[in-house]
Known about the structure:
alpha+beta; 10 strands; Butyryl-Coa Dehydrogenase, subunit A, domain 1; four-stranded antiparallel beta sheet
Amino acid sequence: MTSTVTSPAAPGPLTVLSEDELAFREAVAAFAAGEIAPRVREMERAGRIAADLIPKYAALGLLGIQVPEQYGGAGGSVMMVTLAVEELSKVDPAAAILVDVQNTLVQYPLLAYATEAQKSKYLTATTAGTIGAYALSEASSGSDAFALETRAVKDGDDWLLTGRKLWITNGAEAGVYIVFATIDPSKGYKGITCFIVERDFAGFAVGKKEDKLGIRASSTCELLLDGVRVPAANVLGPVGQGYKVAIETLNEGRIGIGAQMIGVAQGALDHAKKYIKERKQFGRALSEFQAIQFQLAQAQTEVEAARLMVYNAARLKDAGHDIATEGAMAKLFSSQVAERATSLAVELLGGAGYTTDFMVEKFYRDAKIGTIYEGTSNMQLNTIAKAILK
């Protein structure tokens, strides 16, 4: 399998995709239908992504969409990441989040802050198939992201990291981790520093894997750091400015979550539309009842509105704009829409929708995480409120 991602043409109008973007979207959709769809339930039961999917992701160019070709990447755009995550999420949001985290939370900070030596080593590795993870959250620092207890202490030319990270997506599969620790708690957020940690560094271990409501095939793990020795060459960005790395990375990451949520919503509605055209009650298909038509029309309108918000944030990011507010709005609204759309899909299938015989119940469970990770809905509202009231 060869990469299908090509360098993007100049962005067109918001609602118009370029020929390259259209071809890319179609290739990802075909991959999702052929390679992922047959294994969704199997992966969910196993609680992990099928190992052979990862090299297939790499071969298709999905593990380095924005990464320049000189590091083995596809030289694409945030918009292309958005399209990929959306199409994968229509089939399985758990399979999609691995790609999302790789491109937004792992490779973005490397692209933005890494030295040339770091880029050559870690961008090349991650585009080739080494999975990455982003490790910020801790037991005492979820929404209060910078109340970190993980410490980094200078030891000669190295740093020693000690602490515990929680709820780390891709934690089980990853070979490299973007880890945030404080060098001086008294400095508050100005003590936060970012480190590149490899899985085989002494003192590093992957701990408990969470058993979750949804996106069950995606690994969510704790990370244990017991005096992990990290070379000074693996500090990512300036010492004491890890908070900037974290904030900028999460801003882009929220576009990816928005893409996941519109994919979840659309996937559920697509299943529901197929069902109501085939299911008959009172002598005619459910799709012929106006009440059901109106419910579906309302839901699809909301999904389209969310899609435009997500696409707009992606276009703005590609154009070099600050998207903190637009990203928060897109993530907030798309997650709300996903909850409503997936709930409706379950209802339209009736009793059948509440069983595992149909995919809508899985989409319903998968949608909930969108209001929680990479910033809860209340945190998005806080960001938006600050922007509109300043």
